[in-house]
From TrEMBL:
Entry keyword ATP-binding: no
InterPro entries attached to this UniProt entry: Solute-binding_3/MltF_N
Taxonomic superkingdom: Bacteria
Keywords for the protein's UniProt record, in alphabetical order: Signal
Gene3D superfamilies: Periplasmic binding protein-like II (3.40.190.10)
SUPFAM superfamilies: Periplasmic binding protein-like II
Solute-binding protein family 3/N-terminal domain segment(s): 34-262
Source organism: Helicobacter apodemus
Pfam families: SBP_bac_3 (PF00497)
Keyword Signal among record annotations: yes
Official protein name in the record: L-cystine-binding protein tcyA
Length: 265
């Protein structure tokens, strides 16, 4: 009898708690910000499709962590070649880009960035594995460097070359794959990029390339958005969630998982 009375007494409380939980979930669903994310989708280990057909990569998984921290964020991943990413952002096909993008004065004039970086990109030179005549930038005189149009590493290369007396001839490519093939086939001699991304490509494609010692530059990586009011709300949510993720060590763990070292800050 006593158990029945107790059950009757707590039933309203259970119903209230249950209704409150459902109300919170309903409220969160109503306030969900759906964000269309642009990325290359073939830029391993940052954004790619794995053997099981799952979309993954460091940049992708960072955003998935943010979704868990803030249930009102919902990311939809869409893909395009590097040369089409900013066109997609400008046209409204994407709301933001997550593709290892760093700040430049030109980009900051036109777009918005979030405030919390989620990766630190380094720039180092790559050459052929069997190239004994190239071991450091001291050996670059008269050599040919290949770079991708619009890449921040291209800007860094141009500035470095200018500061070093224009020792390199620079050739421009629309995409990375033909550039690396020309490097292997001795049509160009060096390329500047982030070892975190190039090392994986070299391994996957069995390219006979090597990364030279010495960092030319380090750059913080951010998400990038159209310069409009809607973007400011998304940025505020992303920065708040990213700060919490960093405090919990989740971004650091992701970096170690994908690169073996902490390049998150």
């Amino acid at each position: 009898m006593m158990k029945r009375v107790l059950l009757i007494a707590i039933m309203p409380l259970i119903l209230v708690i249950g209704c409150s939980t459902e109300s919170i979930k309903d409220e969160q669903l109503q306030n969900v910000t759906k964000v269309k994310v642009g990325s290359e989708g073939a830029y391993k280990p940052f954004s790619y499709v794995d053997k099981e057909g799952k979309v993954t990569g460091y940049d992708v998984e960072v955003l998935r962590v943010l979704e868990k921290i803030d249930p009102t964020l919902s990311f939809e991943f869409n893909y395009a070649p590097w040369s089409a990413l900013f066109l997609g952002l400008d046209s409204g096909r994407f709301d933001m880009l997550a593709n290892q993008i760093v700040k430049t004065p030109e980009r900051e004039e036109r777009y918005l960035f979030n405030n919390q970086n989620y990766f630190v990109s380094t720039s180092q030179f790559i050459t052929r594995e069997d190239e004994d005549a190239i071991n450091s930038p001291k050996d670059f005189k008269g050599k040919i460097a290949g770079c991708v149009v619009g890449s921040v590493h291209t800007k860094i290369l141009e500035e470095w070359n200018k500061e070093n007396g224009g020792v390199l001839e620079i050739r421009y490519y629309k995409d990375l794959s033909p550039l690396l093939q020309d490097l292997v086939n001795k049509r160009i001699d060096v390329h500047l990029n982030d070892p975190a991304s190039i090392a994986d490509i070299i391994k996957e494609q069995n390219l006979k390339l090597k990364i030279l010692d010495g960092r030319i530059q380090e750059s913080n990586v951010y998400f990038i958005f159209r310069n409009e009011e809607k973007s400011k709300n998304i940025i505020e949510k992303i920065d708040a969630a990213l700060e919490k993720a960093k405090e919990k060590g989740e971004i650091r763990e992701l970096s170690i998982k994908f690169f073996g070292v902490d390049q998150s800050q």
